[in-house]
Write a structure and sequence with these properties.
Maf protein, 16 strands, eight-stranded mixed β-sheet, alpha/beta
Length: about 475
């Protein structure tokens, strides 16, 4: 039987009565909500050595050093370093043998009259998991989704308490630590889009799997992997950038996928201006893949790794519909978005059953998707049986939708790709995957070289051949 979640008050009381834990709470930007929670329950003097807050930028810089952005990972890490050093320096000689010290910090921007947007927060803790041990870190990035600032502040306080409790009592079970992070706030109030763990308390822990766990536990709709397949805060890549997005399973990534993205980005620049810095992005939806067949998280990471080997950022989401993905991306960028898709995907996107859960059906779904800055860029497909070329203009749709497709093409919201490679059109992803798993070699001709090398080296996707190794020296 599953246990009932521990209430926030119970978590705080346990911490306040635990003489082996002692530390500092430092909060910038959205009130002292975590400190308030500890003092409201009572007994906080047993756990809290100091609370502090700095709202003036010059005061904050005087304490932690200058920072180009005050709600940033850099500022959070400076706060953790400064506060942990102080508490350890001042108290280690008197109680360091029996006390594990910690420093909690958050820097946040909540909703206000001048900023009527989702709140943003970097939240972290540097802590000793045992007395006299070297410290470990947990760093989170959160979006605070409540419509009122007071509710955003409350949610931030709950998140901070959960983080301190998890660091102190759940560090040996990182999945449990992450799972309780949102209790009792709902995903409609707080969304976590990055968790990073480091230090001796987390030796051997794969933080990439933990970030996928955020999606599994409904704590996040998406996680972005970049810089060699590592999880990053999405805004660091997507913020205010024009985007070209390719959705797929990528099991494995094919040359045609790269061709689609390159051609779409080139056509995109012709329309938006050659000087634009366009971000090309691969997206994997667990709703389209994992719900149909429960691939293990390691399989998803194999796809992330092969895409990252090509230099692509990879967004893993639980968003099934295109309009849901567009709404997610619009949090970070209001610039143009092009979804690079094959003609067969366009066929599916124009089926009425795709929008059954919407009251307005197909028209509502397309209305939510095709804002002025959004369009489909459509790569042709070759029919396997008839060899007919499928394009944006001749895909098979029901007769009463044909005029709607014609309108979308003429308005430029469905944009046929002009440049494509004929040799890529007849490639079957299923056939490629079957050949890979059977130990064949023909799959290597349609998979990018960097991905082929990685698949062989690590035996990804159950590749049965002999693993290859990097030459020494």
């Amino acid at each position: 039987m599953s246990q009932e979640p521990i209430s926030i008050e119970q978590k705080i009381l346990r911490l306040n009565l635990d003489k082996s834990r002692y530390g500092t709470l430092a909060e910038i930007g959205a009130g002292q909500e975590v400190a308030r929670a500890f003092f409201r329950v009572g007994g906080a003097a047993g756990t809290v050595a100091k609370t502090m807050s700095a709202y003036d930028m010059k005061v904050s810089d005087a304490i932690y050093g200058p920072s180009p952005r005050y709600v940033s990972r850099e500022r959070l890490e400076a706060m953790l370093k400064h506060e942990f050093s102080l508490v350890n320096e001042r108290l280690a000689s008197s109680r360091g043998d029996s006390t594990a010290f910690f420093a909690f910090a958050d820097t946040a921007a909540g909703r206000s009259f001048s900023r009527p947007e989702d709140g943003l927060a970097w939240v972290g803790i540097r802590f000793q998991h045992r007395p006299q041990e070297d410290p470990s870190d947990i760093i989170l990035h959160a979006r605070l989704l409540d419509p009122e600032s007071v509710l955003q502040h409350e949610a931030l306080g709950i998140l901070g308490v959960n983080l301190i409790y998890g660091a102190c009592y759940l560090h040996e079970s990182p999945e449990a630590l992450v799972s309780q992070m949102g209790d009792p706030v709902t995903p409609a109030r707080v969304e976590l889009n990055l968790v990073d763990l480091s230090g001796p308390a987390f030796a051997g822990v794969d933080t990439r799997l933990l970030n996928l766990h955020l999606i599994e536990r409904k704590l996040s709709h998406a996680v972005l992997f970049h810089n060699g397949g590592q999880p990053v805060e999405p805004g660091s890549v997507l913020y205010k950038k024009p985007l070209v997005v390719l959705r797929g399973t990528f099991r494995p990534v094919l040359r045609v996928h790269v061709d689609i993205l390159d051609a779409a980005a080139q056509q995109f620049r012709e329309r938006s201006g050659p000087e634009e810095e366009v971000v090309s992005l691969a997206e994997i939806s667990t709703r389209n893949v994992l719900d149909a067949k429960p691939y293990p998280p390691g399989d998803v990471l194999a796809r992330v790794d092969t895409l990252s080997a090509l230099g692509l950022p990879v967004l893993v989401t639980d968003l099934a519909e295109f309009y849901g993905l567009e709404e997610y991306l619009s949090r970070y960028s209001k610039r143009d978005v092009a979804f690079a898709i094959g003609a067969k995907i366009l066929e599916r996107a124009l089926r009425e059953e795709y929008y059954e859960k919407l009251d307005g059906g197909l028209l509502e779904g397309l209305g939510r998707l095709f804002k002025r800055r959004v369009r489909f860029v459509v790569y042709p497909s070759r029919q396997a049986d008839t060899k007919m070329l499928l394009t944006a203009q001749n895909v098979e749709v029901t007769p009463h939708i044909r005029h709607l497709l014609r309108f979308l093409v003429e308005s430029g919201q469905v944009d046929p790709l002009r440049e494509y490679r004929e040799e890529n059109l007849g490639v079957s992803a299923a056939a490629v995957f079957a050949d890979l798993q059977s130990g064949g070699t023909s799959w290597e001709t349609v998979v990018p070289e960097a991905a082929v090398t990685l698949i062989k080296q690590r035996r990804l996707f159950d590749y049965p051949g002999c693993a290859t190794h990097e030459p020494e020296g």
